[in-house]
């Protein structure tokens, strides 16, 4: 809540009780000695828009918020005049009794973490040590290393394109 006498006056609280945020903007504008056209120029709108805003006939909440900030209306008063309830700020308190560390729990945790990592590494060890699979995808015969199949070497056009074996013989 503001301690400025302007925003703690009976007239301001009447505007809040009447839920008249435009009236708060008018009070702030007049306290700064601004005309509606001056405030409109700062907000990049017309004097008639400011007039409608102060009279409560303009429903643009963003413009209302900007106008209230421009003339110094405190946020809690603006929210109250809009019928909004302000949430209290959260407070954080220091724990009066700091937790004592249990050495046994710490050892148990470290032991569990120390065992979990090697076990997870051993899970993929068998796969990692296995030889590479045969290019066809079938496993190599037992006791014999996998052999690579030779690819046929082609020189020139294929037999089918040349008319087959009959085309070569004749």
Give a topology summary.
Layout: H1 10-17, H2 21-31, H3 36-43, H4 47-55, H5 61-71, H6 75-81, H7 103-123, H8 125-129, H9 164-169
InterPro entries: Cro/C1-type_HTH (IPR001387), Lambda_DNA-bd_dom_sf (IPR010982)
Protein name: Helix-turn-helix transcriptional regulator
Region (Disordered): 126-170
Overview of the structural elements:
By secondary structure, the chain is mainly α. The protein has a domain at 12-81: 434 Repressor (Amino-terminal Domain) (Orthogonal Bundle), CATH 1.10.260.40. Helix content is 51%, strand content 0%. The protein contains 9 helices and no strands. The mean pLDDT is 76. This is Helix-turn-helix transcriptional regulator. Residues 126-170 are annotated as: Disordered. Residues 25-78 form the HTH cro/C1-type domain.
What's a quick, concise take on this entry?
The protein has 170 residues and is mostly helical.
Based on the model shown, name its key terms.
170 residues; 51% helix; 434 Repressor (Amino-terminal Domain); 9 helices; mainly alpha
Ranges where pLDDT stays below 50 over 5 or more residues in a row are: none
Write the CATH fold name of the domain at 12-81.
434 Repressor (Amino-terminal Domain)
Assigned CATH architecture of the domain at 12-81: Orthogonal Bundle
Tell me the series of helices and strands, N- to C-terminal: HHHHHHHHH
Radius of gyration over all CA atoms, rounded: 42 Å
Give the end-to-end Cα distance, rounded to a whole number of Å.
108 Å
Q: How many strands, what sense, and barrel or not for the largest sheet?
A: none
For the record, the CATH class of the domain at 12-81 is Mainly Alpha
Oligomer: single chain
InterPro entries: Cro/C1-type_HTH, Lambda_DNA-bd_dom_sf
Protein name: Helix-turn-helix transcriptional regulator
Biased composition (Basic residues): 145-154
Domain HTH cro/C1-type: 25-78
